[in-house]
Amino acid sequence: MASTTSFPADTVPQAPEDPLFGLARAYRADNSPLKVDLGIGAYRDDNAKPWVLPVVKKADEILRDNPELNHEYAPIAGIESFTSKAAELMLGADSPAIQERRTTSVQTISGTGAVHLGALFLSKFYKGSRVVYVSNPTWANHHQIFNNVGIKVAQYPYWNKETRGLDFDGMKSTIAAAPEGSIILLHPCAHNPTGVDPTLDQWKELAVVIREKKHFPFFDCAYQGFASGDLARDAAAVRYFVQQGFELVVAQSFAKNFGLYGERAGCFHVVTAPAADATTTITRIASQLAILQRSEISNPPLYGARIASTVLNDPALFEEWEGNLKTMSGRIIDMRNALRSKLEELGTPGTWNHITDQIGMFSFTGLSEAQVLKLREEYHIYMTKNGRISMAGLNTHNIDHVAQAIRKVVGETL
User: Which of 37, 167, 220, 234 is catalytic?
Assistant: First the structure.
C-alpha cells in the first residue's frame, strides 16, 4: 500500500540522534564493570551517584510542611520571590541597575528556556545586526536555539589548540570586526565545553571593544557558584558590564548550582542602560516578555523555583547553600589536581597543566576523536568526541583507570 503521509522523508528527514543523549544510551548499554561516564553534564559524588544538596532537602521539608501550599498557576513572569532574588544573585543586591529599577526578570524553563526566550525577544524586537556571535566551540544547543528563531549564527575564535587555553586575541579581533550592533553571546564563567575563562582584565578589554562597536551582550550563565565556589566571583563579568552602563540580557540556570536538573528552574534578566526613560523602557520590555511567555508555556513550573526561593530568601539556608557549592566545586578541583598529577606521574606524552588551568564542570582534554573512540571501545570510558570530559564523572574509584587508559591511548596514537 502506497504511503499517504503528508510528511514524506524528503520534507521530514530522519534527524540524527542528539550526540550527548546517544552517548548516554551507549554508556547504559555497556555491561563492563570498568565503564566510566565522563559525558554527563551533571554533578556526581565520589561514588558516581547524583547528589541531592542537603540544603535542598531542608527546603523540600519546609515546603511539604507548609499547610498553605497549593498547586495553583504561578504568575506568567514566575514567582516574584524567586525572580527578584535570582536577579540579586546575578547582578548583586547593591547593583545600580536594580536600585534604579531598570531590570526585569522572567522565570524560565531553566537556562535553555532563558536562552530561547532571549533569542525570541531579540528576533522580534532587536533592530541591530541580525547575527549572534558565539564562541568556537560553544554549547551545541546555542546554534539550534538561535537558528530556530531566525537569527543567524557566526563564531568568534575561543579555543587555542596549541596552548589548550583561550585564544583571546582571536576572540577580541573577531568581535571588533563584527558588523556594528551584533549580538555577542558570552559565558561569564565555567565556559562550556572548554572550561577556559577570560580573566577580569580581559573581560574589561572585551567591554571596550563591545562598546565601541555598539554590540549587544547576551550572557549565558549556567554555573554561578558551581565554578569557583564563589557566587560573586563567578558573576564578576556580568556585574562589570552592568557597572559600565551596558544594556544587556542574562540567561541564568539553577540546574547545576542547586542540583535541580530535572526541575528546570531558571531566569531571564533584561538590564537597560541608565537613562531618564529607563524605567519606562523596562516596563515595556517586561510587557512583551510576558506575551511571549504566555504564548509558549503560559506559566512556569513551581517546584524548582520554590526550592530555590526558599533558600535564597533565608540567610541561614543561603549560607548552607554556599557551603554545598564549595563541596561540589571543591571535589571537582580535587579531581582536576588528581588527574593532572596521575597523567604526569605516568609520563603521559604532552603537557597537562590545562587540566588544572581550566575551571568548572568540563575540561577540554585535547584528545583527538580517534583517541576518544579508542578510550570508549577498549577501556569503556565515555566522553564526547571532541575530547570534552565532565570532571564530575571522575572519582577516587575510577581515576587510576582513566589516567592509565589515557596514558596508553596517547602513547599508542602519537
Answer: 220
Question: What mean pLDDT do residues 347-357 have?
Answer: 91
Catalytic residue (one of 35, 172, 213, 256)? 256
Per-residue DSSP letter, 163: T
Whether 321 is catalytic: no
Helix or strand (DSSP H, E) at 96: helix 96-99
Contact 10, 25 (CB under 8 A): no
Query: What domains can be seen in the chain, in order of their start residue?
Result: 19-52+328-412 (3.90.1150.10), 73-313 (3.40.640.10)
Residue 202 C-alpha from the chain's centroid: 20
139 in catalytic set:
yes
Q: Which residues of 48-65 are buried (b: 16+ CB within 10 A; e: fewer)?
A: eeebebebbebbeebeee
Catalytic residue among 35, 51, 139, 159: 139
Distance of alpha carbon 118 from alpha carbon 114, whole angstroms: 6
CA distance 18 to 24: 10
Q: Is residue 213 annotated as a catalytic residue, yes or no?
A: no
Residue range 156-198, pLDDT digits in tens: 999 998 888 899 999 999 999 999 999 999 999 999 999 899 9
Backbone angles phi, psi at 304, to 5 degrees: -60, -40
Closest CA relative to residue 376, chosen from 63, 124, 39: 39
